[in-house]
Amino acid sequence: MLLKEMELRHFRNYDHLEVTFTPGVNVLIGENAQGKTNLLEAIHYLALVRSHRTNKDKELVEWHAQNAILKGKVERQTGTVPLEIQLGKEGKQVKVNHLPQSRLSTYIGNLNVVLFAPEDLALVKGAPALRRQFMNVEFGQISSRYLYNLSHFNDALYQRNQYLKQLRSRQATDRILLEVLSDQLATFGSEVTAVRYRLVKRLEQWAQPLHEEISQQKEKLQLKYVSSLMIDDQSEVADLQEQLQTLLRINIEKEIAAGTTLVGPQRDDLHFLVNDNNVQHFGSQGQQRTTALAVKLAEIDLMQEQTGEYPLLLLDDVLSELDNDRQTHLLTAIQDKVQTFLTTTSLSGVARQLIKAPTIYQIHHGQLSTVAN
């Protein structure tokens, strides 16, 4: 999978940009606040219809414009796929092959990306919500069915939580509606849980040898999906659905008192164990960074395994956060494998030595110019 061309209009500080990218490593060099991360953000948005930096789409539109437009041509094994997003006050409009898409689940997956930014080093030691978001973003690109079930689960969860608040305040008394919402939650939640468990197991298989190599065979990494349901390799979706229905029924009085749903995949977590110890609580900073790096690299192989296409890799100023050894492992692992977009203030040291024939773009005030190696 390659992003061959991209066009931006009124996105962040890009009034109008048309750029062609190369299949290898595309290096975006510039001082701070010149637009290099904005361009990486645009690629991320073209893939996922969401920013990794803000939840407010209005911040993405150039200050004097009404709408922003992003276009890209993606080369896949099946041919070239034009993508387009327009965002503004009316919301988002997305197109694939020039045809409007009514659901994001039919758009997402046409361009897959793995983002590695300094904040991703907090994936291991951060809050559970970060790890749930990580699973949702990565697994949603792999499986349109996962994205569909997750969307319907979130809708049912919102409605159920709103109704629980009404029951708590005695604005509502009808528990039949609550039972209906609970059934919907269990239906979609069991599907979400099953896919998460399966793909976490596959992610572990890819991450383990990477982690062993980076740690020089001294450490073994394990990934554990921590669910409110009893789940193993033999679990069926119907069994998970029945379990979740039972838990919702058992906890109903507590949930009314709390005004929120207390069980389900919205409460689940992903644990990283190094030599059987939870690295979040007992690992050194070096172990946490090695784990995050191994998991990010494993995402690339997992996506290729599940979709038949390698994703794009977006490295947002992450080299400055890694020591030389980890930089070496990262750059060696991706060389000649995936199309990569790397932002930095300068290309030097290990990166300069290891990246073969990079295409370098100098960015200044939202303008790009190609730099000779």
From TrEMBL:
Alphabetical keyword list: ATP-binding, Cytoplasm, DNA damage, DNA repair, DNA replication, DNA-binding, Nucleotide-binding, SOS response
Binding site for ATP: 30-37
Coarse class of the protein's main subcellular location: cytoplasm
Primary role: The RecF protein is involved in DNA metabolism; it is required for DNA replication and normal SOS inducibility. RecF binds preferentially to single-stranded, linear DNA. It also seems to bind ATP.
UniProt domain RecF/RecN/SMC N-terminal: residue ranges: 3-345
Encoding gene, per UniProt annotation: recF
Keyword DNA damage in annotation: yes
PROSITE patterns reported in the protein's UniProt record: RECF_1 (PS00617), RECF_2 (PS00618)
HAMAP family xrefs: RecF
Compartment annotation: Cytoplasm
Name assigned to this protein: DNA replication and repair protein RecF
PANTHER family on file: DNA REPLICATION AND REPAIR PROTEIN RECF
Family: Belongs to the RecF family.
Organism: Limosilactobacillus alvi
InterPro entries hit by this protein: DNA-binding_RecF (IPR001238), DNA-binding_RecF_CS (IPR018078), P-loop_NTPase (IPR027417), RecF/RecN/SMC_N (IPR003395), RecF_2 (IPR042174)
